[in-house]
Amino acid sequence: MRTQVAIIGAGPAGLLLGQLLHHYGIDNVVLERKSGEYVLGRIRAGVLEQGTVDLLEEVGVAARLHREGLVHDGIELAFGGARHRIDMKTATGGKTVTIYGQTEVTHDLMDARSAAGRTTVYEAADVTIHDFDTDRPRVRYTKDGVAHDLDCDFIAGCDGFHGVCRPSIPADALKTFERVYPFGWLGILSETPPVSPELIYANHERGFALCSMRSLHRSRYYVQCSLDDHIDQWPDDRFWDELKHRLDDEAVAHLVTGPSIEKSIAPLRSFVAEPMRFGRLFLAGDAAHIVPPTGAKGLNLATSDVHYLSQALREFYAEKSSAGLDDYSRRALARVWKAERFSWWMTSILHRFPDTDGFSARIQHAELDYLVGSQAATTSLSENYVGLPF
Deepest of 23, 198, 313, 373, by most Cβ within 10 A of its Cβ? Predict the structure, then answer.
């Protein structure tokens, strides 16, 4: 089999890249080691920047998003027993974010790809990439016990942090940067109405908490926890009690509890691999970088990567120019590092660290107090949260 672009990974990054390339008339094949059902079962992010929504509109997969997604004009910061609203729409001249689950984005992209007749190979086992430092790269995989070769012009590694693409690059050709945080997020999903119309980010002496949502009837809540904790140590009643401790009185009064339909503990890390290109292999999304979820940037960074990459590939095939491909890593990383900075900053002002003493806690409170009282600081947070321009 032959294609122009082989895309490894059928998460939102790979599927959106495939749809953009289809939109531009560029042939592509997507390979995914898991089943489609498994991919749709992964519970992930749900805050979409305006740029992400615009890309989904461009490829014609935003109709359900606009019907079911929740447009948010701001967020709330809770500290010192009170809540303070950040009006992002006013601060940014009209920009907003949309609450729409990553699972739903993936579902919409899967449907669009199927309707377009593009090839996606699920349960592709033993995927390996070869000769990507030449002009004749290829991908090998096994499907139903049969070995296959996929010849291509380029390989897009959209296969996540634990995928095969980044480790296939010679170690001396990559530089990695990492910070592992000394805590995790315990998250639950429940069929309950959200406690507030907008997200609440809470700084509390017991630890960080986040009140989020997936719809008007489904809520997503998080509390900071120890990396040594296990799910079986957190029955639902304990989770709800702990969340109430970290929220203000008004939020507690409006909180509707119920049985969890999903529960998980996620460690937090910042990670960047440079460069994001080696020969004819291009990394995108979590294959190249990870951010702590505090800034709601993971999925949105993946979409900006595939925006840059799709534009570069379009230029290559339409104009016979490799300038965009040559500049892909620099352009993508410039935005990645700004998002890394913002996510690190949000994490640092909202969480309790093991070395947080009285002085550090007062500094956090002072920064938050300045943030909600300064138009300049509010604008800075808002510009980053709704998404910096591509």
Answer: 313
Cα angle 41, 45, 51 (rounded to 5 degrees) comes to 125
pTM to 2 decimal places: 0.94
> Which residue type occupies 2?
R
Which of the residues 95, 297, 307, 351 is marked catalytic? 297
Bridge partners of 42? Answer: none
Alpha carbon dihedral 258, 264, 265, 271, in 10-degree steps, equals -130
Instruction: Reply yes or no on whether 72 is catalytic.
Output: yes
Instruction: Beginning with the edge strand found earlier in the chain, give each strand of the sheet holding 260-274 in spatial order.
Output: 82-87, 74-79, 200-202, 209-213, 219-225, 175-190, 260-274, 289-290
Q: Which domains, ranges and CATH numbers included, belong to the chain?
A: 5-72+96-177+269-347 (3.50.50.60), 181-268+349-386 (3.30.9.10)
Looking at residues 34-43, what average pLDDT do you find? 86
**Rounded Cα gap, residues 99 and 214, in angstroms:** 6
- Catalytic, 204? Answer no
Tens digits of per-residue pLDDT, 281-298? 999 999 999 999 999 999
Count of beta carbons in the 10 Å neighbourhood of residue 79 = 21
| Total number of residues shown for the chain | 390
Distance CA(86)–CA(321), nearest Å, equals: 44
Task: Classify 388 as helix, strand or coil.
Answer: coil
235 in catalytic set: no
Active site residue 385: yes
Token pair of 5 as six digits: 């672009």
Token pair of 256, please?
């509707």
pLDDT of residue 45: 73
The catalytically annotated residue of 181, 222, 328, 385 is 385
H or E segment and range at residue 142: strand 138-143
Q: Which residues contact 177 (CB under 8 A, 6 or more apart)?
A: 270, 271, 272, 274
Catalytic residue among 201, 221, 222, 328: 201
Tens digit of pLDDT for each residue in 205-240? Answer: 999 999 999 999 999 999 999 999 999 999 999 999
- Express each pLDDT in 192-204 by its tens digit: 999 999 999 999 9
The answer to whether residue 102 scores a pLDDT higher than 80 is: yes
E strand or H helix at 151, and its extent? strand 146-151
**Distance between CA atoms of residues 19 and 118, nearest Å:** 9
Q: Does the pLDDT of residue 9 top 80, yes or no?
A: yes
160 — alpha (psi -120 to 50), left (phi > 0) or beta?
left
Given the residues 292, 293, 308, 328, the one annotated as active site: 293
